[in-house]
Amino acid sequence: MTRVLSVASECVPLIKTGGLADVVGALPGALAVHGVDMRVLVPGYRQVIAKLPTQEAVAEFDDLFGGAARVLKAPLGAQVLYVLEAPHLFDRDGGPYMDPQGNDWRDNPERFAALSSVAAMIGADGIEDWHPQILHCHDWQAGFAPLYLRELGAAGRVSTLMTIHNIAFQGMASASRIGALGLPRTGFHQRGYEFWDSVSALKAGLVYADKLSTVSPTYASELMTKDFGMGLDGVLRERQEDMVGILNGIDETLWTPPYKTIAEKAKHKAALRKELGLPADWPGPLCVVISRLTEQKGLDILMQALPALLDRGGQLALLGAGNPGLEEAFQRKAQKHPGVAVRIGYDEDLAHRMMAGGDAILVPSRFEPCGLTQMYGLRYGTLPLVALTGGLADTVINASPAGLAAGCATGLQFHPVSAQALAQAMMRLITLYQDKETWTRMMTNAMASPVSWTHSAAKYAALYESMVKAKQP
Ligand code: ADP
Ligand code: GLC
């Protein structure tokens, strides 16, 4: 058994703001069949502690970044979960990263440095006689772990993998906090964790981890370009030999359509239209969006391109939350246009009903490291219309003339990410939707797409194995 501690700020079913939680929650189960013993370490936010069925303290700290803390062990199905209980850092109202007013917690650098530092201590000393061979660090929140592990003198025995789920979040902190974060001053330079005169937790991970990965092969190469690297492309180019793109999968125990045949989908569409108050007799496709409303997701472009769908009898149902300007713009659109339904908020059950009831799912992202909703769409026969970028490029087979002629298309892709190109893609979507035979074929192809964790779990397992070997004396 390869022993891996997965370190992350979110994990389904305890705490989720996006796809990171889905991935962290699914990996241990997907990897168990490959002989990997993966345990997850997450922060004990108030809402996490409240959900723990049972708990037992397995480690204690008198002073962890300003207060007492414990590691709680909690069973999660067949898995073992470690929760960092540190009330002074995590027992608060609000979300994992922001206060109830939507501002970042001012002590975010310390909060996640604490998580990373406990991960490193577990790496160095083990916990309950369990000694991980690998720390798998997800995003900037776990970025300092490889550096702390070095400081503890354990980096020669324990290997580290830093996975980028989204390079837009870099864990920046003022250099005045170097002492408070317990970082070695000797690392504060361009080839260390310094970034634009500040400290970057993500850069620390990218510099000090043994191996790097991201969540799709296309994003792995995009990240090394100026357009996508967000200032870290140079660091990544230097480490390209250590970098790999491994596509996410989806947890099919959580995301399986409530129907076996395409014909059965119609009743879910009817139910969804009814629930959302959308007219039942419009001829065009019902398109859904389930998304964080941020710049990344390109929904401002969708707003501009929407007439191309609505004027041709198509409908839009959007579930999302985030940018207040976008929330308002979509709500206004829904008030004015009978073909548009908008629900602002976070609703896991509605997300499932929308996936089941929609004809197509729209993902017009400016960048998308992997993207999960297009994969849920494939599984549900809800055809993805996506921007040609990142994981969206790697998971969808475009209904291009070649894709259609070969009979393997599973969705549509457009490029560049502009209102014009999206409008054209939506017109193509409508034409395809009207061609019942082709549409049905595409649905069948989509539902048979290999979106489970099977392939990618094997890739992670092989990567871990090679990392363990590399540390053997
Ligand atoms: P990202 O992680 O960038 O947000 P992904 O596509 O990888 O994008 O994952 C998003 C996840 O969050 C999916 O599981 C999706 O269903 C879910 N999601 C996003 N917004 C909402 C929402 N408003 N309500 C329910 N689920 C949502
Ligand atoms: C990030 C990315 C998304 C990816 C998810 C899980 O939030 O934005 O594309 O699917 O992480 O890896």
Automatic annotation (TrEMBL):
<feature type="binding site">
    <location>
        <position position="16"/>
    </location>
    <ligand>
        <name>ADP-alpha-D-glucose</name>
    </ligand>
</feature>
<comment type="similarity">
    <text>Belongs to the glycosyltransferase 1 family. Bacterial/plant glycogen synthase subfamily.</text>
</comment>
<comment type="pathway">
    <text>Glycan biosynthesis; glycogen biosynthesis.</text>
</comment>
<dbReference type="InterPro" id="IPR013534">
    <property type="entry name" value="Starch_synth_cat_dom"/>
</dbReference>
<protein>
    <recommendedName>
        <fullName>Glycogen synthase</fullName>
        <ecNumber>2.4.1.21</ecNumber>
    </recommendedName>
</protein>
<dbReference type="Pfam" id="PF08323">
    <property type="entry name" value="Glyco_transf_5"/>
</dbReference>
<keyword id="KW-0320">Glycogen biosynthesis</keyword>
<feature type="domain" description="Starch synthase catalytic">
    <location>
        <begin position="3"/>
        <end position="238"/>
    </location>
</feature>
<keyword id="KW-0808">Transferase</keyword>
<comment type="function">
    <text>Synthesizes alpha-1,4-glucan chains using ADP-glucose.</text>
</comment>
<dbReference type="GO" id="GO:0009011">
    <property type="term" value="F:alpha-1,4-glucan glucosyltransferase (ADP-glucose donor) activity"/>
</dbReference>
<dbReference type="Pfam" id="PF13692">
    <property type="entry name" value="Glyco_trans_1_4"/>
</dbReference>
<keyword id="KW-0328">Glycosyltransferase</keyword>
<dbReference type="InterPro" id="IPR011835">
    <property type="entry name" value="GS/SS"/>
</dbReference>
